[in-house]
Structures are given as structure tokens and as C-alpha cells.
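Hey, sorry to bother you again with one of my protein questions. A protein chain has come my way and I'm curious about its shape. I'm sending you its amino acid sequence along with the C-alpha cells. I owe you a coffee for this, so here goes:
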Amino acid sequence: LNRGFTEMHCMSGHSNFVSCVCIIPPSDLYPRGLIATGGNDHNICIFTVDNPAPLYILKGHKNTVCSLSSGKFGTLLSGSWDTTAKVWLNDRCMMTLQGHTAAIWAVKILPEQGLMLTGSADKTIKLWKAGRCERTFTGHEDCVRGLAILNEMEFLSCANDASVRRWQISGKCLHVYYGHTNYIYSISVFPQCKDFVTTGEDRSLRIWKQGECAQTIRLPAQSVWCCCVLDNGDIVVGASDGIIRVFTESSERTASAEEIQAFENELSQASIDPKTGDLGDINADDLPGREHLKDPGTRDGQTRLIKDNGKVEAYQWSASEGRWLKIGDVVGSSGATQQTSGKVLFEGKEYDYVFTIDVNESGPSYKLPYNITDNPWLTAYNFLQKNDLNPMFLDQVAQFIVDNTKGQTLSTSAQFSDPYTGAGRYVPGFSSGSSTIPAADPFTGAGRYVPCLASNAVAPVGGVDPYRGMGAYQSAAAKVENIYFPKKDAVTFDQANPTQILGKLKELNGSAAEEHKLTEDDLIILEKLLSAACNTSAETPTAQQLQTLWRAVNWPEDIVFPALDILRLSIRHPTVNENFCSEKDRVQFIILLLKFLNPKGKQANQLLALRALCNCFVSQAGQKLMMERRDEIMTQAIEMKSGNNKNIHIALATLTLNYAVCLHKVNNIEGTAQCLSVISTVMEVFQDLEAIFRLLVALGTLISDDTNAVQLAKSLGVDSQIKKYASVSEPAKVRECCRFVLNLL
């Protein structure tokens, strides 16, 4: 009778090792679910359960994808060494979570919608809501390696500091569990309870019940990389010997006596390196003989060392069987002679050796950690400095290190290798790729809606739209055609979610002061205006609708943003544009929008006011007003250059571009000079490449067919400012557009 598992299906799609696997639950489209894998090739492959080739491949991470978690409605969360996490829906990346300063080793989607957790080598855990970091959990003293969800309010984390922590979502650490003697790599929860299992670098699987380590199962492999609890309560572990083992409490599923004996034999023949520290300090001369095993153990998992014929053996007490189980031979206990992957943990970091140094008999002893890749003299120097010891000991300490490591150098053929890095051991490190961290989402409150971060634009001649960022324009082998400038039409911000905007408006209206409250009729009026503005109805906006909108945009600053978003969308409609930008209301309209361009104001309002100004350019009336009030608008708008919100930067760059489009059609040297000055000023501070691209298009448009503008741009030193963008690899449109501009300069 085969009680085991059989291989049903083999999939391949990565060009290098696979570092994580995750199941995407069944859906209408894929009733058997999907399998997601993350790899060292920076990709995520999505497989069906009956095809060896990927259904699709998700590209976007810039380094190894080492953690995956699936959520409701087909969402997938990925964590990478590139320090970011990404949220995917089907084959599209919906958002990138930026904020960690080192590799993200663990990710989990929480049961409550929109909540996600990330654990990182920067020793922190972050809670994200709708793409924004809500909270950072600190407490671990080394890299966070695993996360597990207990319920909607609590979760567990494990780390290289050999501890497990239980947290409340609110940020409070409820409990710290100790038991492992080395890195903990993986943690998994039993169904419907708070009991859990952990595996780590100390050759063990540990089962925790009621907050205590109830059972320790040793394995004949140094690194036990991963564990998971099946729905039936069985525990599956994967280890560095390439074997997957399943442990059960069920007598029906227990392996045969022969298989269990084979496992025990394999375990008893394992070599345990004392340097791992798993068994404490070992002095072979002081160890008792085999008679020591006649006394029963006091708790499950207790270890005992004995000396038999000059050989040190390790035994572990099995409470369920009432006997001592041999878990291996201790090798090199009189001084390390064998390189294995196990290392000593000291102050949360791993070392090949941790020596105890006695400077004088009466004084304290000091710990000296050392890796065989280190320089003995530099290590000795740092040790003396740290402990405020006399520098004259330098040669003596360095020689001690050399003598006690027998001049060992790092072995290139380590017996076990880290499946995450392919190296002898994971070294907590920082991704070399730099990432610009966007500002936090400025929107607050429940049921948050985010004014669309994407930006639409009118496609330039040639059919390729460099503003949408979809399949950036690829140059052919032939001469590259300039599809970027001079730009003929304004770029607008068109994307919207009317349902969310109205939902937010209604929610804020509920808490508004009486004098600002809109009636149910007012809300219906605004709903009709929004559908007309978004082309979902053929109706023309009415005077009554515009009056109601005007009342809403005059709300207090902290609740006005949904009304501003309706204005941003409505102003594209010729009727609305004519109304607000015509003789009668134009002054009030500009004063209103400029009021929001206050550096101390709310970012949401700054962003939407800038986008509304950009959208004014769609009609004649709006263009006329924007050109008449250009000086004050641009003077106020440039104040938005400080701060680190890339969406505000993109909106400011777009406003500049729309002015360039208008200025290219008229002879207005003052306007051109102001625009070039703005480009030169903000080019210094902008980091986001989409904003830079729009500034480059604005610059190109301004200097096309205008020798005065070319001279002016040169006098401002714009050419030297933009040179660096001629070598940008991605997106290609930045590089190409920059080269076209430089050709004119």
C-alpha cells in the first residue's frame, strides 16, 4: 500500500532556480485553480494544472522573486530582493509597494480586503492598505523570513534572530516565542487554531501548541527550508537534502515500520557540526557514557550528548515513544574540522566561528565572532576597539584566530546551498537596484478611492502613444522617427472611477458641517453631471448642475477632493469649459484652483487642481484663459516642485507641456522664456522618468522651429541638464526623446 504522494505533473518556465510556489484558488475561468512560481530570473510564471508550459509570465521585478501570496478575486502579491512588493491581477501589475530598504523575504495577503503584509531583510514588517503603508512593525533583530496569518486581527512572524513573534494588526507585539537555536526560515499555522509549526537552520521542525514548543522533530539535513500544514493537519517540510517529508498524527497515514526505521537510521548517521551551536558548548572530555541514556528525558525534544568509544553522539527524547532517539554524530567537537552550511548565530548574525577570549584570569570573557572570509587582523582590531581592550594584543588575537581556524578559506563546494541565493548561505543584503520611493497616498478614510495614477494622452502622429507607457516605442534598425514633438494637442488626465468618486463624495457629505451639506437631490445632480462628463450619457450639463458643482468645490479643504475630481473630469466637456472659463466666472475659477496650489496644503488637492488646470486646455475658452493667466498660474504651480509625490510632479510636467503646445502656435517670447525657466528649474529636482519625459517633450515642442527658444534654452544650460537622460535604458521613449532634443540644441 503506497501511503505517499506520486508526481502528477512537472512544469517548467524559469531560466534559473525557483524560489517560491503558491496556489491561486479556483475561479470561474480556472475551476481547478492555478499555480504561481517565483524565480531567480526575476519572473513569476503562472501555470494551469494540466500544461507543463506557463499560461503567462509576469515581468516587472528587477531581482529574484522570493515570496508569493494569493488573495481573493485573482490577486497575487509578490516580494522580491529588489526591495519592492507588487500586486498583480491576472496578468497585470496593479501597484508596486515601495518602502522597505532591503530584500522582501515574506509576503501575505490578509483576509480583510486591501490589507497586505511584507517582511524584509531590513528587520521590519509593513502593513499596506490599498497600496499605502499604514504601519511598520519593529522588534525583530534580524531579517524577517516568514509570515503566517492567524485571523483578521493577528499574525505571526519568524526571523533570522531565532524568534517567532505574534502581532496584532494594530502594531502591538503580543508574544515572543523562543526555542530554535538558529535562523527560522518558515512558519505555518494549523487550520482553525493558533497552533503553528516552524522550521529552520538548526535541523529541526518544531510544533508549537498553546504557546509552547510541544514537539521537536530533527531531520537529517542542516537547513529545513520550508514547511506547510495541510488541511488534514499533516505537516510537510522541504530540506536542503532535496527531500520532502510529511509528518502526521493519524495512524492511518503513518509510514510503515520499515520506512520509519530507515528515517531513524538516516538521522542517526547524520553529522552534527558543533559550530552551529545547536547543542550548546561541547567539551568532549566532560561527556558521560552510554549509561546516561538509561534516565528518561524531562521534556519532548530534550537533547543529550554521550561519548561512546571516543565518538560523540547526540540523542533526543521522544515523549510519545518514551525513548532516546539518536539524531546524529557530533563531528569535529575538539575544534572545527568540517565545513558545513551550519553557522553560529551571534547577536542575530551568522558566523563560521564564535570564540570565547579570556584577556586575563580575573576579568570577563569576550565573544569574538569570525567568518573565514574575514581578514584576521582587521577582525582582531575591530574586536579590541569594540571591547575597549589594549591595542598591543592585536598580533596575539589575530594569531589566535589563524591558529584556531587552521587557515581555512571559504569552501567552494559547500555540501548544502541556499536555494534562495545558490550560495553557501544567505547573506542579508540590499538590492543593488535603486528604487525611488513614491510619497504615501494622500487619500484618507474608509473605502478609499485613489484618483487615477495613470495618465491618458492623445496619441501622437504615428500611432504609438508614448504617454500611456504601453509597449514603449521601439526604434527599428532604420532611422528613428521623431514621434514625440512638436506636440500638437494638449495632454489630459481622463481616467476615472465615477462610482468610487461619488461614493467618497457621499461619505464625506455625511460628515460635513450643516452649511456645506448637499441634499439627496444635489447628489443626484452631481451624478448626472459626472456621467455626462465621462461620456456615459449623451446629456449636456445644465446650469443647475454647474451651480451645484461650484458649491461642492467650495467645501473645506479636508473634504473637497472628490468634488475637485468631478471638476477635473467635467472641465473637459465643452459646455462646462465654456461656463467656468468664460468672462463671467473666470476670475473666481482661477482663484479657486490656485488656492489649492499651496505647498502646505493637502497633496490630494494639489494633485487634482493641477490636473484640472491641465484639462482646461481641451477647449478654446480654456486655452484662452490659461494663456491670459499664464504668469500667475505657472508661478504658483512651480511651488509644487518640492515634495516627493511623483504624481504631482507628472501633473506639473503635463501643465508645462500643455503651455508649450499653446506657445508653439504663437509668437510669445515671454511665455516661452517662462516655460523654459520652469523646465530648467524642475528638471533639477524631478526623479520620476514619466515626469522627465513630459518635460523633454515640452522642451522639444518649445524649441522646434524657434531659433530664439533654442538660444534661450542653451543660455539656461538645459542641454547639460538633460544629457544624462540620453543613456536611460528604460523606458526607451526618454532616451529617444532626449536625443532628438539634444540634436536641436
Remarks:
- The first strand starts at residue 18 and ends at 24.
